[in-house]
Amino acid sequence: MLIGFAGTLAIVGFSPAKTTTGLTPSFPSLESLFLAVAMMSIYFSLYGGLYQNYLVREKDY
Fold this sequence. Notes:
Elements (H helix, E strand, L loop, with lengths): L1 H11 L3 H8 L6 H30 L2
């Protein structure tokens, strides 16, 4: 698998400058930032509720 990955990099080309640019988070507009925050808050709320359920079951209320 590692050989296949290295082969793909050789065929496609690898630019370290473009790679580091892609790793830094950036948002094209303010709306996309709000969308990302909304998605994170939805998942945080969901998993917080599930964890609360787990804690209540552990206490045997």
